[in-house]
Each structure stands twice: as C-alpha cells, then as structure tokens.
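Hi C.,

You asked whether I'd gotten around to modeling the 323-residue construct. I have! Everything is below, sequence then structure, no commentary in between.
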Amino acid sequence: MLRTRLDTARIRAARRIIDPVFLDTPLYRCAALEPDLGCAVSIKLETANPVRSFKARGTELVADRLADDGPPAVVCASAGNLGQALAWSGRRRGIDVTVVATRHATVAKLDRISALGATLELVDGDHELARDRAAALARQRGIRLLEDSLDVETCEGAGTIGLELVDRAPTVDAVLIALGGGALATGVGHVLKELAPHVEVLCVQPLGAPAMTRSWHLRRVVTTESTNTIADGVAGRRPIPAVLDDLLLVADDAILVREDSIIRGVRMLLDQAGLVAEPSAALGIAAILEDPDRFAGRHVVTIVCGSNVDMAAYHRWVDPGQR
C-alpha cells in the first residue's frame, strides 16, 4: 500500500459526494492526433462540465464537509480554475466563498468567479502572493482556508479521474498529467500506482515554471524567484513539502517542455481534436512533441484539464498570422 496522504477507499467514496456532472468525463481515442504524434493517443476530457476544469472534483468534497461542519465560509487563492470551482460548489450549498487572485490572472477566469457569486479580491504580484493573502484572510476572519494540493480533498477529488482511467483504459501504457501544485498528479498517480502499477505516470510542467519538477528530480523542495509561462494554471514558485513527498511516491518522471511546444499543442488540440484547451491542458501533447521516440508505438492518455482561456491570447496562439 502506498504511504501517501491519500486513501483509495476515500477516493472511491468521493464519487458518492461529487456532483455527477463532474464525473465520468469523456475518454476516447483521438486518431486525428496520432499521425503527427507517432503514438496512440486517448484524451481524458476534463473540460466538459460547468466550470470547464477538473478542479470541482475536489471543491465538491471541501464544500460538502463545510456545509456539514461549518463555519459556512471559505477562502482560497487561485489562478482562476480553483476559484471558479469553489464558487460553483459553494453557491450550491450556501457557503460564502472568497477568492484571492493576482491582477494578472486571465480575465475570463476572474469574470467567471464573480459571476458564480464569489467575492473576488485581487493582489499585485503573482500567485504566491495571492496564497499569502488568502492565508491572512483566513486567520483574520476565522474561516476555512482551502489550499490547493495541500488539502487532501483536492487531491482525492482529482483521484476519481484515476478510477475512471483504470476502469475504462486497461491497455494504457502511460498517462501524461499537467503538474502545478500537484493535486492532479498526486491524485491520479496514487490511484494508478495502487490499482494499475504497470501504467507510467508522467508529470509535465513548463520550463518557465519548473519548481515542482526540479524539486521532484532533486528530492527536496526547490523554489524559484519568478515564473514565465503562458500556462498560468501551473505557474507556481513554492512547492508544498507534503505534496512533493506524495509526488515522489507516485510519479515515474517529471518533464519540462518549451513554450513553443505548448503553443503547438494548443493549436493541435483545436485543429485536430476540435478542442479549446488552455495552455496547461496542452502540456501532455507538448511532451510527446518534444520526445516522440519515448512514446512511439505506445498508448498514451493525456488529461485535457481545463479550457478557460483569454480569447484574445488564444487567437494569437492558434493563428500564427496574429502573432
């Protein structure tokens, strides 16, 4: 049995708590991508839900517990997707939600957070400063602080994706997972290593936001002074030690990819799969593009984990004539 903070029995039980609208998302072979990638590619589509990302699998668990135990208020820091998910889950249960984000976050994500009824507070600086501000608000108000990836509910909610992969993709050789704070990677990775240990768990991060990947390779927390990537959903600088400990147990490798590969992945998902994907969701495709020999002849699943994009920036990425 894996000695992570996660528990497979709790992950199975989570399926009874999470709104079914977020469960059993599409998983399908995408033959149109395969000639350019040189391997069999299946997509796990985590954008086909009301918040267009996987994050609500975790916030549903947090909000359910808050509704039972109180106080009915919570604050989180978010690059945008967690905030939307928490706002959605909280609104359903009458929970007061505050989201702290950087002023540089994707406007479409911020607008959606407000539209879902959360209080939005913006800070100057980057996501790590938003994390600090959210922690300060929680102390001041005496309310729950939701820390993505540290709070095990966010990881175990993501772990339900792993259950769906085990049930529906028994012939998979590897799963490519976007790596930011680590909730998605540790959740899916925990389930795969316990129930399908033959599947290779590969985490992918941008070269411009490499802190967790560097930490995984050195087996200790490595922080960076800044980030520089279009993949805002994974642009953290300060890995959480407990999350790194889990990741070291469940990940087979952590890979860094270039910005041009991420952009090409976004474009391929649109042109060849008909999918709008935010840059973080294209990291798996970028990894295959950069190292095709590693994946040649194998069956790979890539988790398309979010589709909340700034449309002006998106059009620049997918239309080279606008760049």
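If it helps when you're writing up: The longest strand covers residues 96-102.

Thanks,
B.
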